[in-house]
Write a structure and sequence with these properties.
With 226 residues, the protein is of the alpha+beta class. It has a domain of 148 residues. 25% of the residues lie in helices and 31% in strands. The chain is built from 6 helices and 10 strands. The strands form 3 sheets. It has a 4-stranded mixed beta sheet, with helices on one face. The chain has a 4-stranded antiparallel beta sheet with strand order 2-9-6-4. Strands 3-5 form a two-stranded antiparallel ribbon. The relative contact order is 0.22.
Length: 226
């Protein structure tokens, strides 16, 4: 049994773990860019980027991340992290079916589509990247871009205010968790660096600025070789 078959066998467990509130979604499309801001050169071997990757997005008013990776001994990684800042923003690379089996969904959170998403993931050629971020309840995040290389993963988000007719407490917080499918094989043991940025400019503007920055860097490099 290869890694994809093993993951497909596990996928049915996800539905049983999910609760009944929150929301989930999946999207797809990728384009190459240069990670000038993050320091990741996406033209380098084993590196790449996506501006609209396939993913599962979960949002919930939970005390901690609504989707997380449990430790092999049963104690969850989030339970081991007592510091507030560590709970507010967490990142995990899921590169094997064994790690995928440790994915857990918080009570009351709907991770609709998670089971099929897992079964469709080929961990021989793809990697899952789990990132959870705490945000104010009246705002939401949009993943503008994810970049990777063998030892590092970086994300960039746009933060926008929810519509005025949305009921939310200005002092309340929610968690947004994303399980992103990276179209490359990464090793959890080798990925040691993580980066993330959040801005108020929309994704189109942020990605355009990033592309222009990459073009400038390429032009400067070419000029230096002459």
């Amino acid at each position: 049994m290869n890694r994809r078959e093993s993951l497909a066998a596990f996928a049915g467990v996800a539905a049983a773990l999910a609760g009944c509130s929150g929301y989930g979604s999946a999207t797809s499309e990728s384009t190459p860019t240069r990670g000038a801001e993050s320091g990741i050169d996406t033209d380098a071997p084993g590196a790449g980027s996506a501006t609209d990757p396939e993913m599962i997005h979960v949002r919930g008013a939970t005390e901690r991340a609504p989707l997380w990776l449990a430790d092999p001994d049963g104690e969850t990684e989030r339970e081991r992290r007592s510091h507030r800042e560590r709970r507010r923003h967490s990142r995990t690379v899921v590169d094997t079916p064994a790690r995928a089996e440790r994915l857990r969904v918080a009570d009351g959170v709907d991770a609709d589509g998670l089971d099929s998403f897992l079964s469709e993931t080929d961990l021989d050629s793809q990697t899952l990247y789990l990132e959870s971020v705490e945000v104010r309840a009246c705002f939401e995040l949009t993943l503008c871009r994810i970049e990777w290389q063998p030892d590092e993963v970086s994300t960039d988000y746009a933060r926008t205010q929810l519509p005025y007719d949305t009921r939310c407490g200005v002092d309340d917080h929610v968690f947004e968790a994303r399980l992103v499918r990276i179209p490359a094989s990464l090793s959890a043991d080798e990925v040691r660096g993580y980066g993330s940025s959040i801005g108020t400019a929309g994704c189109a503007r942020r990605n355009r600025a990033e592309a222009e920055s990459g073009d400038s860097a390429s032009a400067a490099s070419t000029g230096g070789d002459q």
